[in-house]
Amino acid sequence: ETGVTQSPTHLIKTRGQQVTLRCSSQSGHNTVSWYQQALGQGPQFIFQYYREEENGRGNFPPRFSGLQFPNYSSELNVNALELDDSALYLCASSLARTYEQYFGPGTRLTVT
Amino acid sequence: AQTVTQSQPEMSVQEAETVTLSCTYDTSENNYYLFWYKQPPSRQMILVIRQEAYKQQNATENRFSVNFQKAAKSFSLKISDSQLGDTAMYFCAFMKVSGYALNFGKGTSLLVTP
């Protein structure tokens, strides 16, 4: 059974740029959730995708957007990067209507 | 909105000893799920234990057990026979039964010393 994977591991961007982060869900999982974890904080929910549609969204601006593909992998896109976007971005996959979310190792984004 | 509070930013325990991490939460929901997640320095978040609010029996997973007090909205994690590999950040999290988002506390950094 393949676990959740994320790419890239680390990323450095400049303020105002755009970034795309990628996530492959665990085998058999059709739901992907994204979280932002600032340094020293707990993860904050960004949004969730189920069957290629956004299923729920946290308190994040529209410049945070996502996609889910037919193979259930997912992308997180952030436009107009701000310094406060520097964080660890975690992807978690799950079976729809179940509560167990399995996390990937994360992507560390640094905005300078 | 649901809030999760972990009042112990850092804790330390000696190997083989027992330690308890505290968590309180605030919700108007009657049915929900509670979780403890572990995030080692390698940073991959791992589910340690889960509790369904409708179950009165406290969950147990090997050396990990919880003390779930629904009326007090308290959900503590007890780690018995602590091991060096238990060193990590521990996050308490809440999810509504009808929900999809995990609400996390700020975490407790646990250090297990020889």
Task: Describe the protein.
The complex is a heterodimer of chains A (112) and B (114). The model of chain A has no long low-confidence stretch (mean pLDDT 94). Chain A is globular, with a radius of gyration of 13 Å. In chain A, 36% of the residues are buried. In chain A, a hairpin with a 5-residue loop joins strand 7 (64-68) and strand 8. Chain A has strands at residues 5-7, 10-13, 19-24, 31-37, 44-50, 53-57, 64-68, 74-78, 87-94, 102-103, 107-111. Chain A is mainly beta and 112 residues long. In chain A, the strands form two sheets. In chain A, strands 2, 4, 5, 6, 9, 10 and 11 form a seven-stranded mixed β-sheet that branches. A four-stranded antiparallel β-sheet of chain A has the order 1-3-8-7, with no helix packed on it. Chain B has 114 residues and is mainly β. In chain B, 0% of the residues lie in helices and 53% in strands. Chain B is built from no helices and twelve strands. Chain B has strands at residues 3-5, 10-14, 19-21, 24-26, 32-39, 46-52, 60-61, 64-69, 74-79, 88-96, 103-104, 108-113. In chain B, strands 2, 5, 6, 10, 11 and 12 form a six-stranded mixed β-sheet that branches. In chain B, a hairpin with a 6-residue loop joins strand 10 and strand 11 (103-104). Chain B starts with a strand and ends with a strand. The model of chain B has no long low-confidence stretch (mean pLDDT 94). The chains are: A mainly beta (112), B mainly beta (114). Chain A binds chain B through residues 31, 33, 35, 40-45, 48, 55-56, 58, 88, 90, 92, 99-106, and chain B through 4, 33, 37, 42-47, 50, 91, 93, 95, 97, 99-107.
How would the blueprint of this fold be written?
The complex is a heterodimer of chains A (112) and B (114).
Chain A: E1 5-7, E2 10-13, E3 19-24, E4 31-37, E5 44-50, E6 53-57, E7 64-68, E8 74-78, E9 87-94, E10 102-103, E11 107-111
Parallel strand pairs in A: 2-11
Antiparallel strand pairs in A: 1-3, 3-8, 4-5, 4-9, 5-6, 7-8, 9-10, 9-11
Chain B: E1 3-5, E2 10-14, E3 19-21, E4 24-26, E5 32-39, E6 46-52, E7 60-61, E8 64-69, E9 74-79, E10 88-96, E11 103-104, E12 108-113
Parallel strand pairs in B: 2-12
Antiparallel strand pairs in B: 1-4, 3-9, 5-6, 5-10, 7-8, 8-9, 10-11, 10-12
